[in-house]
Amino acid sequence: MFVLAPFGVSRDLVQALISGFFEITIGAEMASRAAAPVIHRVVAASAIIAWSGLSVFAQAASMLFGTDVRMGVYFIARVLQAVLAGMIALALTCLGPWGASLALTAMPGANAAPGFLAIMGRSCAYLASTIGVLAIGTAAVSLATRIEVVTFRVRARGRH
User: Fold this and answer.
1) Spatial CB neighbours of 56, under 8 Å, sequence gap ≥ 6
2) What is the DSSP letter of 107?
3) Hey, is 122 helix, strand or coil?
4) In 35, 57, 79, 140, which residue has its Cα 20 to 30 A from 103's Cα atom?
5) Rounded distance between C-alpha atoms, residue 153 and residue 81, angstroms
6) Which DSSP state fits 35?
7) ∠ at Cα 16 (15, 21), nearest 5°?
């Protein structure tokens, strides 16, 4: 628990992460109820859900027993997925246009109930952001598929 203390992670959230390491449902529920900022709870819940817990890992191991799928690779993939899910959740909550409104709702006494026009404006901003990200991703994939690698070999002189 002391490893995450310098990062400002609450004790409740650490307990949720430990529970989520073993079981997804209990860990995600504990993360949602932890006495921590909303952003921390979202990141923890995202990582816990992506990891899925050792109970799901054991179920997958029993299903994959006798196949050519290596559990080490599966384990590493789950760890990477949990880390990426946490990072993406952090980026979306901090960098998105609604990050400030999430922080406001976590502050007691703050009035964070936006009106209809504010909600529509944010929804349009989300839609535009999503379309922009998808367009950039599509363009990147399209460019990556058009790259051709050309190789050639120089023959030594004197040989025919």
Assistant:
1) 24
2) S
3) helix
4) 79
5) 42
6) S
7) 100
